Amino acid sequence: SDEVPEHDATVADFYLDTFEVTVGRFRKFVQQYDGTAPASGAGAHPLIDESGWKSAWDTNLPSTQAELISNLKCDASYQTWTDSAGANEQYPINCVSWYAAFAFCIWDGGRLPTEAEWEYAAAGGHDNRLYPWGSEAPDGTPERANMGSTANSPLIDVGTYPDGVGRWGQHDLAGSMWEWVLDWYDSGWYSGDGNICNNCSSLTSASGRVVRGGGWGYIAYYLRAASRYYIAPTHRNSGVGIRCARIP
To answer: DSSP class of residue 30?
Structure first.
C-alpha cells in the first residue's frame, strides 16, 4: 500500500555510482577519519532546500576512528569489514548507519540519492521496469541478483551478477545490500502532495530513513524497483550498505 498510487516523477540529471560502496573504498574514508563531522549543509541536493547535512546530527557520528571501526563490526558472521585489507575489499560495506553513509558520500564528493532518484535508476526511467534488468525473475536462469535463493550472503564481490545490470549500467540495484537514501520514510508519500514529485524528497522527521533494493537474504518480492522499506537512521545492519549520487 505504500507504493501506490503509481505517479509521474521528475528528477534532474544526476550521476549514481555504478557499484555499491565496497570495503576497500570505505577503508580510505576510515583511514582519514578523525571524528570531524561534515560542514552544515554539505551533501545537499542542489534543487532541494534543507537537504544537506545538519549540525544537529554531528553527535550521531563516531567521535574517533577507533569507534567507527568498532561500529563496522555489527555482526560476527556477516560483517564485511576487516581491520586489514584482504579478500574482502570488493565486498559491499555493511554495518553503516545512515549518518555514516551520508558522511562518507559527502567525503567522497557526493551525496545520498533521493528515493525518487534511486527508483528512477532502478526502474530504468520511462521503461518503468519491474526489476532493474526487466521483468524476468531474479533467481531464474541466468541468476541476476545476490538474494536468498542465490548467494544468500554479503560476502561476495559487488558486480558478480552482470545479467542484473540496470538500464544505465548500475550493478546490484536489486539484492546484495539494501541501500540508504536521503528520505525519511512516509507510508503516504505517494498520496497527496507526494504525488507531485519534481526533484522531491521526504524531509519531515519520522521513525526511519528509507532503504531500497532488497537485500542478500530476501525473496524476489523485495527486489522490485518499487519496493520500499525503512530502518532507524542510527541502526547498523549486515544487510544495509551505501550507493552515492553526485552532480553531473
So the answer is: H
Average pLDDT over residues 217-229: 97
| Residue range 6-63, pLDDT digits in tens | 888 999 999 999 999 999 999 999 999 999 999 999 999 999 999 999 999 999 999 9
pLDDT in tens, 123-152: 999 999 999 999 999 999 999 999 999 999
C-alpha cell at 248: 553531473
In angstroms, rounded to a whole number, what is the distance separating the alpha carbons of residues 200 and 24? Answer: 32
**Structural element, H or E, at residue 29:** helix 23-32
Nearest to 174 by CA among 202, 136, 141, 209: 136
**Cβ density class 2-14: b for 16+ within 10 Å, e for less:** eeeeeeebebeeb
What's the per-residue H, E or C state across 129-180? CCECCECCCCCCCCCCCCCCCCCCCCCCCCCCCHHHCCCCCCCCCCCCCEEE
What grid cell was written down for 3?
Answer: 507504493
Query: What is the amino acid identity at position 102?
Result: F
Neighbours of 53 (CB within 10 A): 20
Mean pLDDT score of the chain: 96
**Residues, the chain:** 248
- Per-residue model confidence (pLDDT) at position 196: 78
Distance CA 164, CA 43 (A): 29
Distance set, CA 79 to CA 98, 177, 210, 214 (Å): 16, 12, 21, 17
Distance, in Å, from the CA atom of 158 to the CA atom of 47, rounded to the nearest integer, reads: 31
